[in-house]
Automatic annotation (TrEMBL), chains A, B:
Keyword line: DNA-binding, Transcription, Transcription regulation
Annotated InterPro entries: Homeodomain-like_sf, HTH-type_TetR-like_transc_reg, HTH_TetR, Repressor_TetR_C, Tet_transcr_reg_TetR-rel_C_sf
Gene Ontology biological process: negative regulation of DNA-templated transcription
Classification via Pfam families: TetR_C_1 (PF02909), TetR_N (PF00440)
Single annotated GO MF: DNA-binding transcription factor activity
Name of protein: TetR family transcriptional regulator
DNA-binding region: 21-40
Species of the source: Streptomyces mangrovisoli
Residue ranges occupied by any HTH tetR-type domain in the UniProt entry: 1-58
Signal sequence extent: none
Source organism superkingdom: Bacteria
Amino acid sequence: MESVLTEAVALLDEAGAPALTFRALAQRLGGGVASIYWYVASKEELLDRATDHVMGAVLSDVERLPGSDDPIDDLRAMAVTLFGAIVRRPWLGAYFMRNVDVQGNSLRLYEKLGRQTLRLNLTAHQRFHAVSAVVGVVVGSAVDMGQEPPQEILDGAATREEFLGRFAEAWRELDPEDFPFVHEIVDEFDGHDDVDQFRSALDLTLAGLRLQAGA
Amino acid sequence: MESVLTEAVALLDEAGAPALTFRALAQRLGGGVASIYWYVASKEELLDRATDHVMGAVLSDVERLPGSDDPIDDLRAMAVTLFGAIVRRPWLGAYFMRNVDVQGNSLRLYEKLGRQTLRLNLTAHQRFHAVSAVVGVVVGSAVDMGQEPPQEILDGAATREEFLGRFAEAWRELDPEDFPFVHEIVDEFDGHDDVDQFRSALDLTLAGLRLQAGA
DNA sequence: ACCTGAACACCGTTCAAGT
DNA sequence: ACCTGAACACCGTTCAAGT
């Protein structure tokens, strides 16, 4: 079981979600395809378990965070840690927190995040929505990041800079009368940093939360 | 071409993303599978074009919005309209805004959203991040919503209430010492409304934005 | 309890060939 | 310019059979 998950994660890390097939996994394990079905009922379960497997390390990182007297700062640090894990493993973005099942590291992480809101002057309703919002920012940024080509594997040996640059170039061709905003931000878009973008979105949400909590 | 997209959208609306196969689409169009490849180079392009096709209607809805003297209120109304479209078509959540290609309704919608930030006292950098954050909230909420079973198509003819209730029940079994937050919000989770959750997340982001803009 | 080979029912995509 | 049948190389999943 352990080796099934380890090899599954290895495949995902090496070549992303499409690389994880029962046949590829079986070959790495040196067995037949059907064997995997003894450990796992479906591909969905395999993905869920592989995701929760790596979430164990993320949870450890979060637990190792120092913590401060400001619950919102702590919430930010935890979210940044979580997003960092997704930056390192882009395939995670599509699966993590998808089903916060009973037991499992995802639920424990959810609890960790939520516990910070218990230190804020909020209703239970507001606390639930606050954690949903923070998780939403992470997911939203992860999905956005997932659009970009991983590494330099795209047509014509282009880098991420060239990929963004090609979009930017096309945008600059648009009529400024029709697309004033696109022109306003095209230089910002060109070569932008995903982590920067995430942190800004997170900060807006946390600023709103601080206001709501009167903290 | 038009009918290819119309039928593709029909399939997606009827039974979600897995229902859209070249074979199913060809059958509906009364032709062979290979014919579709004359209009579209790949499945990815088919999905992109189908998505942009329905985004046309969303764009019309957004353009029909009255507008006010408060750019942030206008931003909120537009985001709510966008999210409403995703509630009606859950499959949209996985594809919209994925590639804001040159030309296309998604780009026009992106421009519409961004134009509101031009009315705020922000830097170009802040404007870019603000729109990214708002889109991120929509995407994040849409992904979260996509986890839940569509309609009552799940094991044992359960409703959404029963689906959420089953999770809530399991959560209530957890040790309150280990999971104080989960216990705090389990009643909120049970039977929660996705649109409510989205609006709360959006409001936090917009409150942060208002603070930033000093408006 | 654990593993297997072989099949089944699907996929997206290609291609030579037709009109 | 537009469409086709038939094949190719894959998928996830099942199942009877083995140890």
